[in-house]
Amino acid sequence: MIVLGLGMALVFEGLVFALAPWRLEQALELIRRIPLETRRAIGLGAVALGTAIVWVARSLGG
After folding, report:
1. What is the pTM of this model?
2. What is the DSSP letter of 1?
3. What are the pLDDT digits (tens) for 10-62?
4. Is 30 left (phi over 0), alpha (psi -120 to 50) or beta?
5. Which residues are listed as membrane-spanning (predicted)?
6. What is the per-residue burial (b if ≥16 Cβ within 10 Å, else e) of 5-25?
């Protein structure tokens, strides 16, 4: 299951690099403008949300 998730992440990230590299540069510039503490809070929120999604998916699957 982890390998499947890793593979899907690589496909998505690869598509961004292949199809819209200029958008990636724009996104990185936008991220640079966000204060460090805000970026940290967003990262922690993403970890919490990801953990919740995995927990729910595992409980539904079996």
Report:
1. 0.67
2. -
3. 999 999 889 988 998 999 999 999 999 999 999 999 999 999 998 998 899 75
4. alpha
5. 42-61
6. eeeeeeeeeeeeeeeeeeeee
CB 16 within 8 A of CB 23: yes
Residue 16 contacts residue 24 (beta carbons within 8 Å):
yes
Q: Give residue 31's identity as a one-letter amino acid code.
A: I
- Angle subtended at Cα 44 by Cα 24 and Cα 52, rounded to the nearest 5 degrees: 105
Q: Which two tokens stand for residue 8?
A: 């899907």
The pLDDT of residue 61 is 79
| Residues across the chain | 62
